[in-house]
C-alpha cells in the first residue's frame, strides 16, 4: 500500500468533517437533546441517501439479501450509524472537549487491540511507534503546548461513554476491512457504496430513533429550541459527516487498512483544535505546527511498516 495524494485526501477528509461535526454538535446540544440530534441526523441522511441506494431494498429479492445478512448489518448499523455519534453527543454534556478528544485520539491503540484480539493481526513495532507519535501530537494540541496540563484531567461519565464509542468505532473499521464470507467475492450482493450504507442505515436509523424515544420517556429533555442555525447544523451533519465522510472512510479503510486509517483519524482533534480556535477568534499557535508534524510523522512511520509488510 502506497500513500498517494488521492488516498491521503480520502483518509484526511472524513476527520475534517468529523471534527466539524464535534464542534457544531457541541454548540447544538444546548438547543436539542443529544439523542434527538443523532436521530434527526440519520433520518435526514437516510432520506437523502435512499434514492441513491434504493436498489438495496426495492425488490423482494433485494430485501432477502439483507435478511440473510441481518446480523452483520445490524452490528454495523448499530455501531457505525446509531451509536458512535449518539455517545459522542451525550459525552459532551458531562465531559470536556479536551477529555473527549483525547479519548477519541486513542483510536489507533484500540484498532490494534481489536485487530490482535478479534482478528489475530499483531501490530508491528513501527506501527506502535507511529501510533505513539500521533498520540503525542494530539496530546500536545489538546494541552495547548503544555503537556503538564494533561495531569489535571479528571474522568467523568462522559469520558466512559466516549471510550465505549471509540472502541466500537475500531470494531466497525475492522468489520469493514475483514467482512464475513457472505460479504466476500461472488457471495457479496452487488451493492455500491450507497446501497451498502442503506443496508446498514436501516438498522442504525431504527436504533437511533428508538433510543431517542425511549431516552425521552425515561428522562424527558427540555423542549428543542428551533432556529435556522439548528436546522443548518442538522443538514450539515446529515450530509457531510454522515454521507460524504462515510463513503470516503469506507473506501479508505478498504484500501489502506484499519490500522492506517486509525492513524489518520488522529487528525480529527487537530482539525477540531484549529476550527475551535477560528470560532473563538484565536489564530494558530506554534505548538499546532509541532503537533501536526508529530501526527504526520506517525502516519509516515506506520505507512513504512504497512508497505514493508505488503512487500513480503
Keywords:
single chain, 312 residues, mainly alpha, 13 helices, globular
Q: Quick one: how many beta strands?
A: 0
Q: Average pLDDT, to the nearest integer?
A: 83
In what range is the share of β-strand residues?
under 5%
Residue windows where pLDDT falls under 50 for at least 5 positions: none
- Termini separation comes to 12 Å
Overall 3D shape: globular
Give helix % range. Answer: over 70%
**Counting H and I runs of at least 4 residues, what is the number of helices?**
13
> Cα-atom Rg, whole angstroms?
19 Å
Structure class: mainly alpha
For the sheet with most strands, the description reads: none
Written as H for each helix and E for each strand, in order along the chain, the element string is: HHHHHHHHHHHHH
How does this model look, in words?
- With 312 residues, the protein is mostly helical.
- Helix content is 77%, strand content 0%.
- The chain is built from 13 helices and no strands.
- It has helices spanning 5-28, 34-53, 60-68, 70-94, 97-104, 107-119, 125-142, 157-177, 193-218, 228-256, 258-265, 267-279, 286-311.
- The longest helix is centred in the last third of the chain and has 29 residues, at 228-256.
- The N and C termini lie close together (12 Å).
- The mean pLDDT is 83.
List the helices and strands and how they pair.
Elements: H1 5-28, H2 34-53, H3 60-68, H4 70-94, H5 97-104, H6 107-119, H7 125-142, H8 157-177, H9 193-218, H10 228-256, H11 258-265, H12 267-279, H13 286-311
Short synopsis of the structure:
It is built from 13 helices and no strands. With 312 residues, it is an all-alpha fold.
